[in-house]
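Researcher: Re-running this chain for the archive, since the previous output was lost when a drive failed. Same request as before.
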Amino acid sequence: MFLLANFISAIAQLLDIILTVFMWIIIIRSLISWVNPDPYNPIVRTLYNITDPVFYRVQRIFPLRFGAIDITPMIVLFIIIFLKTFLVNSLFELARRL
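Model: Regenerated structure tokens:
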């Protein structure tokens, strides 16, 4: 059983790292959008390519654009925080109990 517990713990830790990195990518993209970046910059294009599919899915469910203000990044950050709090902690607790 300790192998299964270690496997679940490793998955939880990996998921936590992925969600944290994605959260920072969203924060960086939101900050960059305030300064009107060059759309041909490879870093800006990479940030947009990573975040646009997630933003598009959330915008299809919730139309969250109020004039020039788009609160989709904030909703995605709330979803990530929920996943980190609920899912990752649940996986760690499951691994601990095994």
